[in-house]
Amino acid sequence: MSHLDEMVITIDKIGSGFEERENTALALLLFFRENDILNKLAAARKTLSHSLSEKIGSYEYDKWIENDIILWRPPYDKNKYEITELLNRLDKQT
Q1: What is the pLDDT of residues 19-69, one digit of tens each?
Q2: I need a surface site. Which of 4, 49, 90, 92 has the fewest CB within 10 A?
Q3: For residue 60, what are the CA distances in angstroms to 35, 45, 56, 89, 92?
């Protein structure tokens, strides 16, 4: 649980601590890489999934997992300029 607290607090600090979007993105990348965040998130997900499966039963858990949850899809087909344009569009919407 302390890993999750560390991640959420640090991501929040990074998100509110920089004025320029590019600096925010770079700081997030640095934090994720220096602190092995993706592996920590995977471990947390594994623990939570196991606990939830035990609590509600494997059949119900499998049913819940198979729900049509719409997930964000990374823009693998975009280059950095196209991704930047997507970000610029978001800025214009807010």
Answers
A1: 988 899 999 999 999 999 999 999 998 998 889 888 988 888 888 778 767
A2: 92
A3: 34, 17, 6, 40, 42
**Intra-chain end-to-end CA distance of the chain, in Å:** 33
**What is the DSSP code (8-state) at residue 77?**
T
Burial of 52 (0-12, 13-18, 19+ CB in 10 A): middle
Is the Cβ–Cβ distance between 12 and 28 less than 8 Å?
A: no
Residue 83 CB neighbours (<10 A): 13
Rounded to an integer, what distance in angstroms lies between the CA atom of residue 8 and that of residue 33?
Answer: 15
Can you give the length of the chain in residues? 94
